[in-house]
Amino acid sequence: MADPETVTTTTQETTTTTTTTGAPSVLSFVQQEPGLLVTKELDKAIEYCKDKVARIAKTCKDRNRKFRDIEFDLENDKENCLYGLFTQEEYTPADVHRVTQIFDKPHFFDDDEKPGSNDIIQGALGDTSFLSALATVSTVGELIKTLCVARDETVGVYGFIFFRDNAWKTVIIDDMLYTRVPKYEELKYNEQELYHHDKDIYNKSARKGGKSLYFAKSGETGETWVPLIEKAYAKLHGNYSHIVGGDVCDAIEDLTGGVSSVLQSKDILDVDRFWNDELLRANKDRLFGCSFNSLDTSRNGQAKLSVQGLMGDHAYSVLRAVEVKGKRFVVVRNPWGSGEWTGRWSDGSKEWTAEWLDAMPDIQHVFGDDGQFVMEYSDWLDCFSQIDRTLLFDSSWAMSSSWLRVPARPLPAAWSYGDVSFAFSVTGKTNSILVLSQLDTKYFKDLTGKADWSLDFILYRVGEKEPITEVPHSQFNLRSVNLEVELEAGDYVAYVRLDRFIKESEKEATVDESKLRKLSRLITERSKSQAIASNFKKDEHAIFLGTDLETLVEKDFAEFEKKKESDDKSKTVVTEETSDDGTVTTTTTIVTTETKQVVVKAPTKKPVAETSGTDAALKEAAAPPAPSAGLEDGASGESSTTETVITVTVEGGKVTVPYDDINNVTIGLRVYTNKDVPATVVGRLREDKKETKTATATATATAAVTTA
């Protein structure tokens, strides 16, 4: 190689710009490709939330303004905050007030006391599952205070964190809440007469206090944490209507980052073992909820049936399990804050003799219509058919995961394994929990399409033909399934089996173009969620993903640093001339000194080898297949099923709704292990096309050799 030559060049560049007089205006349009979702540790999420709340509070105080959340403005963006794409239930809040208008002395909660389950009272929203989960979580130490990361009650800004799919999410809200009491002027004449036609009396009595809130409220005077965390959870999922219904176990996962399972009480093999090994550990390292299906009213024609005061399709919280004087009791709570069990050991029942009244402190129960009640363990098992259990983690655990967008075989097809599997390895012996999960689709539930997916998997150790274990089945269409297993050091494969139920009801194919703003939000959130998959095709979603602020700032900062470095090497001379008509001519002369390193190398001739058609075919057959694009974490192969590219058309005032493809689903395997033995997880898709291509190439090569 020849020695490099150093060449110094001086370049003079003259630029002439013509402008009109007046203030200069510069517009910059920057587009940056979005990156994949990055999972942050809990401590980092908490720190980020605190910093954001502090920054907002400082800005508001400097401006002498309270915080108003542009992303979730209850007052000026009512439809967007209340409803999704389709309105199924009408909500009619009368007004919007800040907490300082509702309460004379508002406080989030008492810092020297932990929030309690009796603080929670459901409002006009059917979010029983969430409030039941909130009541359950409130029974454990400082969990609620950990979720409510930061706040400035003077400014009215609150920061929360929730676990979603694979990471902790920060949610910032203001302190405005919906109320159910109208303005004085909106009352009828006879209604005003009840307050002696005195507006001040009406405002001080009817429009003050927690009872005036439209949605959830606290049972403690002046406490605001319940309605505000409900609002934050609604913002996390797009609007209030999207948090209606759902499963308690999913909501507890969202609040804790734990792992939930659903158990049918009739499936318990040994009820004594379940009491000792499971229920007595309630609110220590696990949480429980319970429910049962609605009763069939077709026989007796009654509109609604209850089981001794308890309602079907309604979520209840297990506050604790206690054993007193040889009897087993389960203390349960209704998130309504009323409506209790009327059977044995209900408040005031005959079982509460003087002896047992003295034992009430041991059970930690008091009489009152507050939604809390006591059941004997056997009655609890008989009444509640579904038990939701969530395991909690501490800092000794670590999570590893892999997510894929999976193309399933179109129906009709065999219900079998093979569409996807997850391989993982651990370096030492460890207790583990394997969780196979779908995405949390609450935010974009209006786009979920006609397929309801159900998952299960079976676990093998690599090199062995007999399975280690498989996921226990409890019910279909759960968001996630899991199994607990002790693992030795080694390599493992979880073979996944996908099932889907195609719903009969047809969804609306189009919506009015007035819903375009809402539809855009839903598609964007769906694309962001699906971006967790390693084979996510971000180019096809770029228009819906947009560019996040941090990416823009980082890019502009890098350009600034580059320009600064360039300016240090340049000398700029600017001259201006103004003509009689006011036109300004600016002449910029830039003198740049640039150092280049030039390498002079003698040309070489590369020998050319002739390849016959037979040799080419053989090489094509023998060459290893190229890895599939986008499968960064090792997922291999292509699928015979491709997903339809998102298309939205607007015609005649109607917009097509891009529902989820019924043959594609995003799933992931999360592996929880001891933090000293973290797992490495890789998702793998089936290889239909690649196998076909290889077989074809081999056949062609063989034919060519035979002919020769």
UniProtKB/TrEMBL annotation:
User: Which keywords appear in this protein's UniProt record, sorted alphabetically?
Assistant: Hydrolase, Protease, Thiol protease
Which InterPro entries does its entry note?
A: Calpain_cysteine_protease, Papain-like_cys_pep_sf, Peptidase_C2_calpain_cat
Q: Which residues form the Calpain catalytic domain?
A: 98-393
- Segments carrying the region annotation (Disordered) are 1-21, 604-643, 689-708
Give an example GO biological process: proteolysis
Q: Which residue positions are annotated as catalytic?
A: H314, N334
Feature: compositional bias, Low complexity:
694-708
The reply to whether Hydrolase figures as a keyword in the UniProt entry is yes
Q: Which GO terms describe its molecular function?
A: calcium-dependent cysteine-type endopeptidase activity
Q: What start and end residues bound the annotated signal peptide?
A: none
Q: Does the keyword Protease apply?
A: yes
Protein family: Belongs to the peptidase C2 family.
What is this protein called in UniProt?
Answer: Cysteine proteinase
- Native organism taxonomy: Eukaryota, Fungi, Dikarya, Basidiomycota, Agaricomycotina
